[in-house]
Amino acid sequence: MDIENDVLNHFKVIIAGLLISVLIVSLDSTITSTAMPKIIASLGGLQYYVWPFTIYLTTLIISAMLSGKLSDFYGSKKIFIIAIIVFVFGSVLCGFSQNMTELIIFRALMGLGAGIIVTIPLKIVAQMFPPRQRGKYMGLFAAAGGISTVVGPTLGGYITDSLGWPWIFFVNVPIGIMALSLIIPYLPEFSVIVKEKIMDYWGIITFTSGLISFLLVLTFIEENTTIPFIYLALLFIFAAIMLLGFIYTEIKAREPILPMYLFRNSIFSISSICMILLGAVMLVGAVYIPLFLQLVQGFTPSTSGTYLTPLMFSMIVSSILSGQIISKTGKYKILAIISFAIGILGMFMLSILNTNTTNLELIVYEIIAGIGAGLAIPIFTVASQNAVTKRDLGVVTAATMYFRFLGGVIGLAVLGAIVNMTLNLNLQTAKVHISSSLLVTAIHNVFIIATLMNIIGFVLCFFLKDLYMSNEMESDEEIGYEDAPGEIDL
After folding, report:
1. Chain-wide mean pLDDT for the chain?
2. CATH architecture of 1-186
3. CATH topology of domain 263-469
4. Does an H or E element contain 118, and which?
5. Is 485 exposed, middle or buried (0-12, 13-18, 19+ CB in 10 A)?
6. pLDDT digits over 442-464, tens only?
7. What's the pLDDT at 212?
8. Other residues' Cβ atoms within 10 Å of the Cβ of residue 184
């Protein structure tokens, strides 16, 4: 009862603290992308340009996966506070980096904090509110990510030009302190879900080894390096072996970080696949619309960035609206179907971009694509949380997030390979004299693949079950291993 009173009295302050935390992580990625050329000019190491991003994303995915189980063991509040401190501390170290090696190591530390920061708030919302009410808040967190995409590049350029690149990291310190000042005194310590603190070390080892190997393969392919094919093949085979080892380990583990029985739950399985697809589709417009505007239409980078605003704004508004609709109706299946249907239309229209496309047409296409992606963002986390017992709330919330991150990584790698194959060169060394018609063909292929991804999601959502969403909280009982559910009859 005390926890319920704390939530009732301070929930606006708590939500503000959670949103600020998510916002600084989301902003960090876009700001760093803008500042990286200046960082390279200062520290050197152009050959390692992509590694601060790769290592950050790797540790982010790993910590996102572990966040659910860690919060079950030690409590959401403690783990979340530690994550913010780690992220801020890593930011300070990045700002003081003297070479690229140090920056890469410290970015890895930031990623460990970031993965937990973007995941735990979704679990905290589920602990604060009944299933029916969660959607409206999930939409707000999605909006925070969209805002960072719009504001981040401009803010990153301004900070880098006026204060110097170290300040893109130092700026995280006051924002992190602000978030902690709201979280520490007002966020209640929810009851620990799992009594037996048995860490799944083999699961962590196999998952981490497989993920790092897989991301290395993707990175080398994207960079178009001269590494012999046999080495890439061996690295990929090792990643596949580690994945199989991870699945075997999770079946046998007493406290798995990703319980395999969850995949017998059709809502979780379908939601996981949809999150992978969504993670890929969401990045397509943000990456390839600027490419089209700069290399085909001849726009400047700043102008092309401005033209992303309709896409991101429509995504923000529709994600908030989607959460409100879920909370109002208690239904999500029809909304999921509609979101992917709109996504199909939006991506198909973007696939017909050409040299004659007007600015107004581009804006309309972006808005349609943004609405489709935005509507889908809150749905699958809410649906998955609603389909499992309280014991699995943490791991399910974490799973939906790292599946989305994995979708983004895999999607960009595959789409980047499609572009490179179309152009028969590495776009990192591309010159403006590349044929516009060839570029249009490459971008067309990318958006056609994104259209197919939306079609797959559209079909899957017809099999998504609309489980009743209660307006009452589940009881706060601690659950031991012997209570782990088997197959859930839906």
Report:
1. 82
2. Up-down Bundle (1.20)
3. Growth Hormone; Chain: A; (1.20.1250)
4. none
5. middle
6. 888 889 999 999 999 999 999 99
7. 84
8. 12
